[in-house]
């Protein structure tokens, strides 16, 4: 009851903090920052290939490595946010780092001497003769790229958690926040792949990078304007350190008898006054919470954290372990996304890009799935979720893992459709004798919209599903880290993409080894990805069936609360 009074007292002291007003600033930063990031994610291949004289394969791999780093380093941002800084300060700090990266890219794009000589007027077969970037030019490029990657990773780790923190545990608006957060991301991305890509194509890359720099600067300023409205988390120690302590103490106590499920173990309220009850999975870790008795039979409570852990601390560790199979089984979907972001742009350069009399840059093709997402996200949140809620009794409509599963199915379908479209594109090239031609094929670029639209819907389901799953299932002391782990799937998806391309080239004898897509076997590659996606979905089903939501069954039945979140145990303490 004391914990409840503490929470109630805090609510009375800060009645105006949090809520929808506070999240408006979060939406603004998310949209502006993602506008800059996505515009480069879909078009940097063109910059690498046409301005830095990279080969097609090197261009694709450089982009996927950049994207992978952008998501992987989010783990570092999550740790910083949970351990040392508030989520707000983390967003501002890493936003400034991202700002420096875009500034460096702007300078390089503006001055010709910082780039290799342009490679113009050569046939496709002669592009390997272009002068490569020297060490200094490459250093500027990669410094700017990875400052952007490092900066955006911290923002991605802390910003979703900052927004979700503005709502109470039982507030249904918190579930809707993640959908509207994706909508803000999508709105920014639409502007990025149209307006900024148009600038890079028609005005120059220095102008495009300059707009990205200004967008990130404005996003930081807007987020700072809402500082007085935010509910800020108070970091209370490293979640990674607490996890390590559990393993160390469990190993140290490995010779002690395995405690029974009914045995009393050491427990006090964890960080942020959250208490997690004991579960029967990974019971070998329970040894870390065995209380030590003195010679007189009394219990020793003065042991340090490297000698004894609380049940809540042990359960935090179990949560992370349970999450790992889920995140690993969603990696391959992001590998497929990486292939679409690279090869679809390259496909578009060989096709007729005139739509309704307007020439559409190939890098703007992703606007098709983004528009689909922009339309369907409000429909999903305002129509589907209320209907599903009445049927299932779950405030989110369907469970997080079910939502992710739908996305995985759609991604497999998207890869199969991509194979069909590529087969058609190559047949058009052969029929018109344009296999080695630099002229656009008599096939409209909107054909690529089929595969991208389906994948856009897949991303709508999995993106929000993953972020919300890891935020809600994480303990109170590792919300940012949990959100960062959700980006782990994207990171390794992009890294795996580079590996898959290299392995397929070696095993197949060079399906993707030419600088001419009309002679490559990209259609075979898409079919391979479709088959592997089906296998991956089977693995995911096994992992999702094994996973146990963090819940209390009795309270879930009494309160009918989404996912039976364990923090509700506070009402029973």
Automatic annotation (TrEMBL):
It is a multi-pass membrane protein. Signal peptide: none annotated. Its main location: membrane. One of its GO terms (cellular component) is membrane. It is found in: Membrane. The keyword Transmembrane applies. GO terms for molecular function: transmembrane transporter activity. InterPro entries: MFS_trans_sf, POT_fam. Keywords: Membrane, Transmembrane, Transmembrane helix. The chain crosses the membrane at residues 24-50, 62-80, 92-111, 138-159, 180-201, 207-226, 326-345, 365-388, 400-421, 450-471, 483-504, 524-547. Belongs to the major facilitator superfamily. Proton-dependent oligopeptide transporter (POT/PTR) (TC 2.A.17) family. This is Major facilitator superfamily (MFS) profile domain-containing protein.
């Amino acid at each position: 009851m004391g914990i409840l009074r503490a929470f109630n007292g805090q609510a009375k002291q800060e009645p105006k903090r949090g809520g929808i007003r506070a999240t408006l600033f979060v939406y603004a930063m998310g949209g502006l920052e993602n506008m800059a990031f996505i515009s480069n994610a879909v078009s940097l291949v063109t910059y690498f290939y046409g301005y830095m004289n990279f080969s097609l394969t090197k261009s694709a791999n450089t982009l996927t490595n950049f994207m992978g780093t952008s998501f992987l380093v989010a783990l570092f941002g999550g740790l910083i946010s949970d351990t040392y800084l508030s989520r707000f300060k983390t967003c501002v700090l890493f936003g400034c780092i991202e700002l420096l990266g875009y500034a460096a890219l702007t300078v390089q794009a503006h001055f010709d001497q910082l780039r290799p000589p342009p490679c113009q007027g050569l046939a496709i077969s002669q592009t390997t003769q272009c002068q490569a970037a020297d060490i200094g030019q490459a250093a500027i490029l990669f410094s700017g790229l990875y400052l952007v990657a490092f900066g955006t990773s911290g923002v991605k780790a802390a910003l979703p958690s900052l927004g979700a923190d503005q709502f109470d545990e039982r507030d249904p608006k918190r579930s809707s926040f993640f959908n509207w957060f994706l909508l803000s991301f999508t709105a920014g991305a639409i502007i990025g792949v149209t307006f900024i890509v148009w600038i890079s194509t028609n005005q120059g890359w220095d102008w495009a990078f300059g707009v990205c720099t200004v967008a990130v600067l404005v996003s930081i300023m807007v987020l700072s304007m809402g500082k007085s409205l935010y509910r800020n988390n108070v970091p209370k120690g490293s979640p990674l350190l607490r996890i390590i302590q559990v393993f160390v103490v469990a190993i140290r106590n490995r010779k002690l008898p395995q405690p029974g499920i009914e045995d009393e173990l050491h427990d006090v309220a964890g960080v942020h006054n959250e208490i997690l009850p004991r579960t029967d999975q990974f019971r070998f870790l329970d040894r870390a919470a065995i209380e030590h008795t003195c010679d007189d039979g009394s219990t020793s409570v003065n042991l340090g954290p490297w000698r004894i852990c609380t049940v809540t601390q042990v359960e935090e560790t179990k949560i992370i372990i349970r999450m790992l199979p889920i995140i690993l089984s969603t990696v391959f979907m992001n590998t497929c996304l990486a292939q679409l972001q690279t090869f679809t742009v390259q496909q578009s350069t060989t096709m007729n890009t005139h739509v309704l009399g307007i020439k559409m840059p190939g890098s703007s093709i992703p606007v098709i799935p983004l528009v689909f997402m922009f339309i369907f996200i409000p429909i999903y949140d305002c129509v589907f979720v209320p209907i599903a809620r009445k049927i299932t009794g779950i405030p989110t409509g369907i469970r997080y893992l079910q939502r992710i599963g739908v996305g995985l199915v759609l991604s497999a379908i998207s890869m199969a459709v991509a194979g069909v479209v590529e087969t058609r594109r190559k047949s058009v090239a052969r029929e018109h004798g344009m296999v080695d031609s630099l002229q656009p094929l008599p096939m409209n670029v909107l054909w690529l919209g089929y595969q991208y639209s389906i994948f856009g819907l897949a991303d709508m389901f999995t993106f929000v599903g993953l972020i919300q799953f890891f935020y809600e299932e994480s303990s109170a002391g590792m919300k940012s880290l949990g959100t960062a782990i959700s980006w782990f799937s994207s990171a390794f998806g992009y890294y795996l993409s580079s590996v898959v391309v290299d392995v397929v080239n070696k095993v197949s004898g060079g399906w993707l080894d030419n600088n001419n897509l009309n002679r490559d076997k990209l259609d075979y590659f898409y079919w391979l990805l479709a088959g592997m996606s089906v296998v991956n979905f089977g693995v995911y089903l096994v992992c999702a069936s094994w996973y146990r939501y963090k819940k209390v069954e009795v309270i879930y039945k009494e309160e009918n609360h989404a996912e039976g979140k364990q923090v509700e145990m506070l009402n029973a303490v």
